[in-house]
Design goal:
The complex is a heterodimer. By secondary structure, chain A is mostly helical. Chain A is built from 7 helices and no strands. Chain A folds into 2 domains: about 90 residues, NADH-ubiquinone/plastoquinone oxidoreductase chain 6, subunit NuoJ (Four Helix Bundle (Hemerythrin (Met), subunit A), Up-down Bundle), CATH 1.20.120.1200; about 45 residues. Chain B is mostly helical. In chain B, helix 10 runs antiparallel to helix 11 and helix 11 runs antiparallel to helix 15. Classes of the chains: A mainly alpha, B mainly alpha. Chains A and B meet through helix 5 and helix 7 of A and helix 4, helix 5, helix 6 and helix 9 of B.
């Protein structure tokens, strides 16, 4: 199974590089969808089927599709038009490499606790218990966050129409 | 696990206020003007603040450790509610004439206040993170509400830069979770501190602390994480700018206190030097770059960055005295900063300008506004006799007590320099002639009340700081026992 993990990891890295590298925005969006799908497979490796399914439904089914719609509406296919600050590639590259080095330093130099337990058979029940009991408050706050986002989207969109 | 609703009552009341305003807005055919809603919001925020004052001494850990009600949380909740009440009053002036967004504006203001209250009561990393995102999204909408490209640009900038800071914060949280296997602050503290030296040797903990610190430094706009704040402060509606400067920043300091004093305190020797660098950069750059500014909102934005550099000194002391000083400064800073931004709001509502030159001869056009601006800015500068002086004294005392006399000395020198640019502002208001076509500036009753409260608090706590000092002493003693 280890080779499967490395294969998926490689797909994630290559497709994520594609997201920032492609000159055409639509290609970037498709690469993003591929990244999301590969991350969903990672969740399957962790025996988190429900999270994997949600990842596919929400991130590919909604987020990626929404991004493609957004690109269609804005109608600017080239990176140069949509991202004027995209010229500082070298600086961004250096910052990204340094950040990655620092994170790797932290991850590789720690004796991480590993659980010996088998994952539960019914992950949905465990998750439901966590979300609706112990972590009910953040769950409800997330609901309010969505409400505010909807209000904000309506407000700002109406503003544009009236202009 | 019993669902303990009683611990959530203040938050539910604020959320209820927001939803009530939303329902009223939907039921009304005509847009409701800001005047009645602003007063309703002000009265409701004040009432809820009094309710929290009444429940202040309560200390309980509920919802399996994910929700903390303690004097520290209640102190900051009172601060947020006061800020929201004052901002509601000032918003009546800024919204007068453009009533379209009045209801939604106060709905969002209530939600932002509720978000800050959730952030300070969060007992686990998940609630903390979701609360911070809730706050950020609400503030993005409030920022972008004004017409014009400056507001849209400010909103977009805040959205994107906040996402980056959230990513850093979240990465730090994920490392902490990986190390301890728990999201609850209390449990993480026990597990990590149990193997303190081992955890530190592994480098994952230092990286996590750096990431969490940079996330919080963004929220409190410490230099060099301040880049977003100037443009956002400039583009947002002026009362919302005040809300950013007093509410959002205080929320950042509140979680900083909670996470660093509860979780990271065993490794204080390692993160204090980082905070010293951040503090020196913040108060020098904030105070010196304020001098050449020609726009009052940018000027006050830099001044508020400077103040953040002083507040963070309390964390450098990392003692009970330091926390007391931070709480004291955060509270008096609310009134001084709000007063200054509120005067800018009143002038902007009449003249349509936020240039410092629009304040020329303000003492002749509105002596009350000029006096408020003078007292509030001098309090920020730390002139004796005003609350800001006691605040700075308290902060410097706490760091000197921990052997950082040189840092306090540097702070005092920069503080004296800052008096210079606040006096430049006073000169514009009191000596310069008003523009030729200028009229008397009309101040609405709501604005008068808000300004009077901030001036009264600034002078009162400058002359007689005893009650507030007693309060922060008790809060800090209950927090670090």
């Amino acid at each position: 199974m280890v080779w499967a993990f490395w294969l998926v990891a490689a797909i994630i890295i290559v497709s994520a590089l594609g997201v920032v590298g492609f000159a055409n925005l639509i290609h970037s969006a498709l690469a993003l969808a591929a990244t999301f799908l590969a991350v969903a497979i990672l969740y399957l490796f962790l025996a988190a089927e429900f999270v994997a399914a949600m990842q596919v439904l929400i991130y590919i089914g909604a987020v990626a599709v929404l991004i493609v719609f957004g690109i269609m509406v804005i109608n600017r296919s080239g990176m140069q038009l949509s991202n004027p600050s995209g010229k500082t590639v070298l600086g961004a590259f250096v910052v990204a490499i340094v950040t990655m080095a620092v994170l790797l330093l932290g991850i590789l130099n720690h004796n991480w606790p590993v659980t010996q337990q088998n994952p539960p058979d019914d992950t949905i029940a465990v998750m439901a218990d966590l979300v609706f009991n112990r972590f009910l408050i953040p769950f409800e706050i997330a609901g309010l966050l969505l409400l505010v986002s909807v209000i904000g989207a309506i407000l700002l969109a109406r503003e544009v129409r009236q202009r | 696990m019993a669902l303990d609703i009683s611990a959530l009552v203040p938050e539910l009341l604020v959320i209820g206020l927001g939803l009530l305003l939303l329902i009223i807005h939907i039921l009304q055919r005509q847009p409701v003007p800001a005047n009645p809603i602003g007063w309703v919001a002000f009265l409701a925020f004040t009432a809820i603040a009094l309710f929290v004052v009444w429940r202040m001494p309560v200390a309980e850990v509920t919802w399996g450790g994910t929700w903390l009600v303690d004097p520290l949380a209640n102190f900051f909740k009172i601060l947020f509610l006061l800020a929201a009440a004052l901002v509601s009053l000032a918003s009546i002036t800024s919204l007068a004439g453009q009533s379209r967004f009045a209801s939604e504006y106060f709905v969002l203001l209530s939600m932002a206040t509720a978000a800050m209250m959730c952030v300070i009561s969060a007992g686990d990393l998940l609630t903390l993170y979701v609360g911070l995102e809730f706050l950020a999204i609400t503030l993005v909408v409030l920022t972008a509400l004004d017409r014009g490209t400056a507001a849209s640009e400010a909103g977009l900038k805040y959205l994107i830069l906040n996402a980056i800071s959230s990513a850093a914060l979240l990465y730090g949280f994920s490392l902490l979770y990986g190390m301890s296997g728990s999201l609850v602050l209390g449990e993480i503290a026990t597990i990590i501190a149990g193997g303190a030296t081992q955890a530190w040797a592994g480098l994952a903990l230092p990286v996590a602390i750096v990431l969490v610190l940079s996330g919080f430094a963004f929220k409190t706009s410490l230099v060099p994480f301040h880049m977003w704040s100037i443009d956002v402060y400039h583009g947002a509606p002026t009362p919302i700018t005040a809300f950013f400067a007093i509410g959002s920043k205080a929320a950042g300091f509140a979680v900083l206190i909670r996470v660093f004093m509860k979780l990271f305190i065993p490794w204080a020797a390692a993160w204090v030097p980082a905070l010293i660098v951040l503090s020196i950069l913040t108060f020098t750059l904030g105070n010196l770059v304020a001098i050449p500014q020609t726009d009052i909102k940018r000027f006050l934005a830099y001044a508020s960055i400077g103040s953040a550099g002083y507040i963070i000194m309390g964390m450098i002391a990392a003692t009970r005295g330091g926390i007391e000083a931070m709480l004291f400064y955060a509270m008096i800073y609310v009134f001084a900063t709000f007063g200054a931004f509120a005067v800018a709001t009143a002038v902007q509502a009449q003249t349509g300008s936020t240039a410092i030159s629009a304040l020329a001869g303000l003492s002749k056009r509105s002596p009350f506004l000029a006096l408020t601006m003078l007292l509030c800015t001098l309090s920020l500068a730390g002139v004796p006799g005003l609350a800001g002086f006691i605040g700075k004294f308290y902060i410097f005392w706490a760091v000197i007590d921990q052997g950082y006399a040189w840092l306090a000395l540097l702070g005092i020198i920069v503080s004296i320099l800052s008096v210079y640019y606040f006096l430049l502002l006073a000169k514009v208001m009191y000596v310069n002639d008003p523009p030729a076509e200028s009229a008397i500036i009309r101040v609405m009753p709501s604005m008068r009340l808000a300004l009077a409260v901030s001036v009264f608090a600034t002078v009162f706590f400058g002359v007689y700081p005893g009650p507030l000092i007693n309060l922060v002493t008790q809060v800090a003693a209950r927090f670090i026992s």
